[in-house]
Amino acid sequence: MRNVKEDGKPVLSIRNLKVSFRIEDKTIDALKGISLEIKRGEIVALVGESGSGKSVTCLSIMGLLPVYGEVSGSILFRYNGRQVNLLSLSEKEKRKIRGNLISMVFQEPSAVLNPLLTVGEQIAETVKAHRNVSKEEAKRIAIRSMEMVRIPDADRRFYQYPHELSGGLKQRVVIASGIANNPAILLADEPTTALDVTVSAQILKLFKDLKEKMGLSVLLITHDLGIVAEIADRVFVIYRGEIVEGGDVFQIFDSPQHPYTKKLLSSRPSFNKVS
């Protein structure tokens, strides 16, 4: 596993990030100068309603904004003694980081997985894209990753196709692919939206376990404060492209300051953060 510990310094620092989209004769300001940090081995939740700028934040980090997007500010990523501004990298340099040092889990696994390849092949392909290993070694790493996300009978599941798996198992496959190269950061964009309550709880516990076992940092994108209460260490509330409040999860739930945060909390039952 990579040594991503950097003397307590943030693994990722977003500073004054602005993103706008020019569509025909109209400019849409998606992000209006947001700033946040993610430390090693913590789960940070970015919470807001649809259209608030959550997913745009993830796409900015991954370097996947559309060509008509205009971006400014900085996204500083620290790893192995280096710090780089992800926004200043070439596309070739971004590809070396994307899916390798920084991975992403999307909300709909069926839209990500290739129906024509076995799930194991897809994880192994992710490994080979970034590591100089043999086909057999890539398979071994893929199966190990499947076991880490608690996919039962991983040796057999390796040869199954996405349509043969339940929604929960497909999401575990996507997470397994995300952690296969031992990333420093995992971006999780509404990872439980398409799952039922029981499976959602299992996936959330999995994120907590991966954080503890791998020292993994997680940026959790969600609109659901119930999820935040379950697993987040710190919370940032985003509203219309601006972060209006941020802090320790207990601070946000016990003493919300911004009217929008209070509104979000008032629409939910009371929560107690679980260990």
Automatic annotation (TrEMBL):
It comes from Persephonella atlantica. Its main location: membrane. It is a peripheral membrane protein. The lineage of its organism: Bacteria, Pseudomonadati, Aquificota, Aquificia, Aquificales. Pfam families: ABC_tran, oligo_HPY. It comes from the Bacteria. Coiled coil: none annotated. InterPro entries: AAA+_ATPase, ABC_Ni/Peptide_Import, ABC_transporter-like_ATP-bd, Oligopep_ABC_C, P-loop_NTPase. It is found in: Cell inner membrane. One of its GO terms (molecular function) is ATP binding. Keywords: ATP-binding, Cell membrane, Membrane, Nucleotide-binding, Transport. The keyword Cell membrane applies. This is ABC transporter ATP-binding protein. PROSITE patterns: ABC_TRANSPORTER_2 (PS50893). Transmembrane segments: none annotated. Belongs to the ABC transporter superfamily. SMART domains: AAA. Residues 14-265 form the ABC transporter domain.
